[in-house]
Predict the 3D structure of the following.
Amino acid sequence: MREKRLYIDKILSLVSQCFNNYPIYSFETDIGEWKLLIIDHAGNEHQPKGSLYGGLTVGNVDLTEAVCKCIPIENLYVFGDSDVDGNE
């Protein structure tokens, strides 16, 4: 149970850092989109969204890769696939 809590804390911390510091500019809908509902401590709702192209990072940490390491589900795509275009 403690290990799961650490994973949850890590994911929420990365997501918080990402959306507090980096606005999302790129939005390509031809490959799909993600939406996230965030409710802050004051009860305010924030709904960032972006394309599944990937590249959503905090520092040098890719958010999709970090979530997939914490939640080991095969073919899990969170903010994008790191191999969307087949070149990586």
Observations:
- Residues 82-88 have pLDDT under 50 and may be disordered.
- The first strand starts at residue 33 and ends at 35.
- The two ends are 35 Å apart (CA to CA).
